[in-house]
Amino acid sequence: MIFVTGGTTKGDFRRLFKAVDQLAAKQCLCGVQAQIGHSSYEPSHCKFKRFYTGDEMASLIRGAEFIICHGGAATLDECLGQGKKLIVVPRLAAHGEAPDDHQLQIATHLAARKRVLLVTDLVQLGDRVVEIKQWKPELTSTRGPSLIVKTING
Question: How far apart are CA 99 and CA 90, in angstroms?
Answer without folding.
Answer: 12
